[in-house]
Amino acid sequence: MKRRTSIAQACVAALSLLILPACGPAATGSVGPANPEVDAIFADLQGDRPGAAVGVVWNGEVVHRAGYGTAHLDHGVPITPETVFDIASISKQFGAMAALLLESEGDLDLDADVRGAVPELPDFGAVITARHLIHHTSGIRDWPHTMALGGIGFTDVISFEKILRMLYQQQAINFPPGSEYAYSNTGYNLLARVIEVQSGMTFREYTESRIFAPLGMTRTHFSDDYLEVVPGRAESYAPVEGGEGFRRLPNQLTALASSSLHTTMDDFIRWMRNYETAQVGGEAMLRTMVQPGVLTNGETLEYAHGLSVADYRGLPTFGHGGSWVGYRTNFVRFPEQNLSIAVFCNVADCNPAGRARRVAEVFIGDLMGPAPEASAPEPDPEGPALTAAQLQEYAGSYRSPELDSTFDLEVDAEGRLVASHWRNDPSVLSSTDADTFRGTQWFLPEVRFLRDGAGRVTGFTVTGTRVRDLIFERQE
């Protein structure tokens, strides 16, 4: 706990020292200042394939600004620093900043019960505040997991309103608010709704007027309409499994505050400079942005206000990554070295975080400590081998009233327990412990069966890192 606190303090102190006079916007164009060593890091993304846009700001100057690869394979449009990307969860820092700005205007109490603004939110028996939502300590379940259990795929239409309707049907949360940390996109979507109610504006309007317009980010907006035409937007792609080439992954998400920020590298450079100039928010608010949350037991988190506070090779950092359909993004800032790096990719296997760290090594590698050693993954637990007759006890239909979703479990011809949903691919369930199974589909990481007093199976719960004990009741 002491180490986490010292890193956070270092970031706060560095920010206070690095407030510089306002800098002008980066020059527009397809190519800007370039570094050959950075180019080499992205050499594999060149040409007629998806790629990345990269921006590096060091001591207030743009020292690298480039695009690699293709934004739209159908039409052969190249990626440039002016290409629009959905930057996924990097968006969260803008949601947190919007909340802090609204608080500074006197229109939001970060420690008030959010049900005062959003009475549709169920009463979970404990007060949930905007501060809980910002630091992922609310206990609210993460919608990518709950939506998947409801049969909704990531390339389906997933609107802001649909996410909220799902939330309003929930009957429980993961833990008492403030007691633990569990990353929740849903929490940030609820934060956006609170900001809308308290400001009297849409979230898109509020962020445009308070953040993007003052910084000159003219090609940046939170997407609230998946059918909107966005000139110059990059499509998202994934490599073809077991073959050559790429397949398109449609992006039909409008998850305000948690994701769905559309921006260009040139615009994001303006935002990275704001961590130096404090043009929007001011010095005190920028210091607050990197102050981590604290649990009720006094433990300091590594998550601040839409930013993760950590270190890399001995140097304090803050930033965030993002992942949605084929978009992969990363932003990292080394505050003591006044170095900011952003990598926006439109292909799922890009590894922007790894590339951003390699970019950092180009500029400040001589200041870094030893490279971290890779840790070996822990093997998955294996439970007792069960016969087809033993598995038959679990067969049946199971429904979640919270998600209005049903899984049918049956023992197949190979003697395996298989969970089927009409909108999802089947998942084979393997025993890991007594009455506990692991699915081959990611959305069934742990399935634990429930029994009544007579020992009969009455349902099961699904638990993962961001969803706990979501109940599916056995249907008679």
Summarize the structure.
Helix content is 26%, strand content 24%. The protein has helices spanning 2-17, 36-41, 92-104, 130-135, 143-149, 160-168, 185-199, 203-215, 265-277, 282-289, 352-364, 388-391; strands at 52-58, 61-68, 70-72, 77-78, 84-86, 221-222, 237-239, 246-248, 261-264, 308-312, 315-324, 327-334, 339-345, 396-400, 405-411, 417-421, 424-433, 436-439, 447-451, 457-462, 470-475. The termini are far apart.
Please explain how this structure is put together.
The chain is built from 12 helices and 21 strands. Helix 1 (2-17) packs antiparallel against helix 10, helix 3 runs parallel beside helix 7 and helix 3 (92-104) crosses helix 8. It has an 8-stranded antiparallel β-barrel with strand order 14-15-16-17-18-19-20-21. The protein has a 6-stranded antiparallel beta sheet with strand order 2-1-13-12-11-10, with helices on both faces. Strands 5-9-6 form a 3-stranded antiparallel beta sheet. By secondary structure, the chain is an alpha+beta fold. The termini are far apart. The longest helix has 16 residues, at 2-17. The relative contact order is 0.16.
Element layout with pairings:
Layout: H1 2-17, H2 36-41, E1 52-58, E2 61-68, E3 70-72, E4 77-78, E5 84-86, H3 92-104, H4 130-135, H5 143-149, H6 160-168, H7 185-199, H8 203-215, E6 221-222, E7 237-239, E8 246-248, E9 261-264, H9 265-277, H10 282-289, E10 308-312, E11 315-324, E12 327-334, E13 339-345, H11 352-364, H12 388-391, E14 396-400, E15 405-411, E16 417-421, E17 424-433, E18 436-439, E19 447-451, E20 457-462, E21 470-475
Antiparallel strand pairs: 1-2, 1-13, 3-4, 5-9, 6-9, 7-8, 10-11, 11-12, 12-13, 14-15, 14-21, 15-16, 16-17, 17-18, 18-19, 19-20, 20-21
Helix pairs in contact: 1-10, 3-7, 3-8
